[in-house]
From TrEMBL:
Free-text cofactor note: Binds 2 magnesium ions per tetramer.
Domain Aminoacyl-transfer RNA synthetases class-II family profile: 117-330
Protein name listed in UniProt: Phenylalanine--tRNA ligase alpha subunit
Amino acids binding Mg(2+): 254
Record's keyword terms, sorted: Aminoacyl-tRNA synthetase, ATP-binding, Cytoplasm, Ligase, Magnesium, Metal-binding, Nucleotide-binding, Protein biosynthesis
Metal-binding in keyword set: yes
Encoding gene, per UniProt annotation: pheS
Compartment(s) of residence: Cytoplasm
SUPFAM superfamilies assigned: Class II aaRS and biotin synthetases, tRNA-binding arm
GO molecular function: phenylalanine-tRNA ligase activity
UniProt source species: Eubacterium album
Family note: Belongs to the class-II aminoacyl-tRNA synthetase family. Phe-tRNA synthetase alpha subunit type 1 subfamily.
Length: 339
């Protein structure tokens, strides 16, 4: 038994010293000290040893185990130190090298403009509401006082999915959903992407964004509309901004108007930016048509309201003095990194 244990010890130590990595060392540990290892097998044979010799044999087995474990720990520490040294050499940092530029993204001009608009109207007590981009013809047209034979349908160059479904041409459809599902008072803005079959050029795109607003309450007048939009214009373009309203026609509002603001470049004196007029058209607005209220289940004898709509890209183009709408969508990093 003594000779057998000596042979196991010498063989194990020899293999341990030949180990090239920690994985190989672990295999040796399992082979000699594991549940099915050689020393364990010796211990299982203790039943065949005479009782008076068992203490001596047990001591010899323990001494052999201790010797193997000590040698294994020594080699393990040496291998770990070598591996750490090799890793440090491989990962050495040359502090004289120029640093890598950390490229940080930022918000798109449209997003910046939208967040500013939302901040203004939320500050005025409005709620931001979004709706589906694929819409029923009823909500996109009919509920907004635009029946099947109305010329406004032709003017909007709609993308039809089928006879009853369209890619929405305006976010006014969100306002109809809100009027049907909520009771006045209502104060919302509805930002989102809209679609029209337009040719791509400097001022047109088949996909663009709108922000539309709606207020429904008792005793709402055109004066409330003017005061709200005047405050909006001052917050967006500066405290000295003036506004004017020109009569217009929209099927879903009556009376309707387009609102201009004084040119924020020249203060209304006339310049290249405003084409010498001193004014810049900014949005359309008006009092909600009584028939639109009726179709949404709101009594026009009890409630009145106003609505307005502004193109988000138009705000971004004006605010950042961009002369071509296509730049917003071409994903040219040289352009976008300026904002």
């Amino acid at each position: 038994m003594k000779e057998k244990l000596k042979a196991i010890r010498e063989e194990a130590v020899s293999k341990i010293l030949e180990s090239e990595n920690l994985d190989k060392l672990n295999e040796i540990r399992v082979a000699y000290l594991g549940k099915k290892g050689q020393l364990t097998e010796v211990l299982k044979g203790m039943k065949d040893v005479a009782p008076e010799d068992r203490p001596k044999v047990g001591q010899m087995v323990n001494e052999t185990r201790t010797a193997i474990e000590e040698k294994m720990e020594e080699v393990k520490n040496n291998l770990a130190a070598k591996a750490r040294e090799a890793k440090l050499k491989a990962e050495v940092i040359d502090v004289t090298l120029p640093a890598k530029k950390n490229k940080i993204g930022h918000l798109h001009p449209n997003t910046v403009a939208l967040e500013e608009l939302e901040k203004i109207f939320v500050g005025l007590g409005y709620e931001v509401v979004e709706g589906p981009e694929v819409e029923y013809d009823y909500y996109n047209f009919e509920a907004l006082n635009i029946p099947a034979n109305h010329p406004a349908k032709d003017e909007q160059d709609t993308f039809y999915i089928n006879r009853n479904m369209v890619l929405r041409t305006q976010t006014s459809s969100v306002q109809v959903h809100v009027m049907e599902n909520e009771k006045p008072p209502i104060r919302i803005i509805s930002p989102g992407r809209v679609f029209r079959s337009d040719e791509v050029d400097a001022t047109h795109s088949p996909s663009f964004h709108q922000v539309e607003g709606l207020v429904i309450d008792k005793n709402v007048t055109f004066a409330d509309l003017k005061g709200t939009l005047q405050e909006f214009a001052k917050e967006l373009f500066g405290a000295d901004t003036k506004v004017k309203f020109r009569p217009h026609h929209f099927p879903f509002t009556e009376p309707s108007a387009e609102m201009d603001v004084t040119c924020f470049k020249c203060g209304g004196k006339g310049c290249r930016f405003c084409k010498g007029e001193g004014w810049i058209e900014i949005l359309g607005c008006g009092m909600v048509h009584p028939h639109v209220l009726e179709m949404s289940g709101i009594d026009p004898e009890e409630y009145t309201g106003f609505a307005f709509g502004v193109g988000l890209e138009r705000i971004a183009l004006l605010k950042y003095e961009i002369d071509d709408m296509r730049l917003l969508y071409e994903n040219d990093d040289r352009f976008l990194s300026q904002f």
